[in-house]
Amino acid sequence: MLKKILKSYDYSIIIVYILLSLFGLIMIYSASMVIAIQKYNVPADYFYEKQKINLLIGFIAFLFFAIFPYKAFRNKKLLITMTIVSILGLLAVSVIGHNANNAQSWIELGARRIQPSEFVKLSVIIYLSAVYANKQKYIDQLNIGVLPPVIYLVLVCFLIKMEPDNGTAIITFLIGMVIIFCSGMKFRTIGKLVMIGIGSAALLSPFVILKFDKFFTEGNMKRITGYLDPFGTYNEQGFQLVNSYLAIGSGGLKGVGLGQGIQKYGYLPEIHTDFIMSTISEELGIFGVGFVILGIAYLVLRGIMIGARCRDSFGSMLAIGIAAMIGIQTFINLGGMSGLIPITGVTLPFISYGGSSIIVLSIAMGLLANISMFTHFDEKYRSENNVKDSHSKVKPSSVQKNFHTKKSFRQTH
Q1: What is the DSSP string of 39-101?
Q2: What are the CA-CA distances from residue 69 to residues 66, 74, 129, 323, 370 (Å)?
Q3: Which residues, in sequence order, are CB contacts of 206 under 8 Å at separation 6+?
Q4: Per-residue pLDDT, 109
Q5: How far is CA 274 from CA 28, 56, 73, 337, in A?
Q6: Cβ neighbours, 10 Å, residue 22
Q7: Which of 77, 307, 350, 403 has the fewest CB atoms below 10 angstroms from its CB?
Q8: Residues near 165 by Cβ (< 8 Å), separated by ≥ 6?
Q9: How many whole angstroms separate alpha carbon 74 and alpha carbon 76?
């Protein structure tokens, strides 16, 4: 049994997850070694060493969730506890949170800081997947089948937005929409839900206009201005984006060489977190960028394929939700650093510096590996049983046929 379980794991997911994380660790050292000394007055390997510890914690979490049966998260008591802890965590941020980069998104726990909104993203995936899997019999009934989880999703996104963390709020909301779309609802039900959303937005619009400065802070508006006219606002809002362009342009095909980039010498802020792909572009060129994009794309596609193959509705939605989280976050990060969309402050999955981010992603990859293992094991076990059943049917019938043949032979002779 143990051999069958071990053979059922999708080791390609594990290999790509480890390769991306180790590659990210190398690039964090290259991107942060200058600002560690100049800006933070710490050793050059400070962020590198911290990320090593984060990776170790993340890998332990990965192993646990890769072994622990994912179906246990469908338990109602566990789901209720998870939702309460998520909301309390987000509320705690508004009271005792640590402010950094104009966002109060972290809670300090001694020498370490955690970002509750990162963990809430994954809890939303688990909650929505489990609830909609449990509501399959009445999935198209708005009052009891559709709206309660949506209300929870909107509440969580609102609390994240108030930190303010627009990027994470957008990602969480889009993940929720993907799970709802894949939940088995009829298009008519989804259409009703969209109309309710539009109506609610229209009713709330006067309140948003009155409290415009709360919903769209000065920092938010500067990011939009910098996005619309980066070169015209180079000395202010467009400074970060223009220097990202310079890093991308100077990298070319092969890059200037690992550790040889110039933008990390104080020209490009947040180069080891939100803009780490700019460093990769500058130092490793299109080959480094291609490695990251192909690796992340592989994990996203594998997540979708696992979700499509899984016969368990909870496992299917969970796998697709994880794939959506990685894919949407990657798009928003790369879109921001390349000027495709406004900068949101979202990290690049597996590559950027961040303890909460890599731990959550490691847990998500453990869950994905677990779903893949159970799906593959179930398919293999079912096919083996079908073969055994077919053999057991063939043998009696052939024996019975031979018996009747012999009996008829005796009777005729």
Answers
A1: TT-S-TTHHHHHHHHHHHHHHHHHHHHHHS-GGGGG-HHHHHHHHHHHHHHHHHHHHHPEEET
A2: 8, 10, 15, 19, 7
A3: none
A4: 75
A5: 11, 22, 32, 8
A6: 12
A7: 77
A8: 103, 105, 117, 345
A9: 6
Amino acid at residue number 404: H
Question: CB-based burial of residue 76 (10 Å sphere; 0-12 exposed, 13-18 middle, 19+ buried)?
Answer: exposed
Q: What is the SS3 assignment for 238?
A: coil
Return d(Cα 175, Cα 123) in angstroms, integer: 11
For tokens 């088995």, the residue is 184
Contact between 167 and 345 under an 8 Å Cβ cutoff? The reply is yes
Per the CB < 8 A criterion, the answer to whether 279 and 263 are in contact is yes
Of the candidates 218, 261, 271, the one whose C-alpha atom is nearest the C-alpha of residue 241 is 271
**Sheet of 103-109, strands arranged across:** 98-100, 103-109, 112-114
Task: Calculate mean pLDDT across residues 34-46.
Answer: 89
Model pLDDT for residues 191-245, shown as the tens digit of each residue: 888 898 888 888 877 877 776 666 666 777 777 888 888 888 877 778 888 888 8
Question: What burial letters (b/e) apply to 202-236, b meaning 16+ CB within 10 Å?
Answer: eeeeeeeeeeeeeeeeeebebbebbbeebeebeee
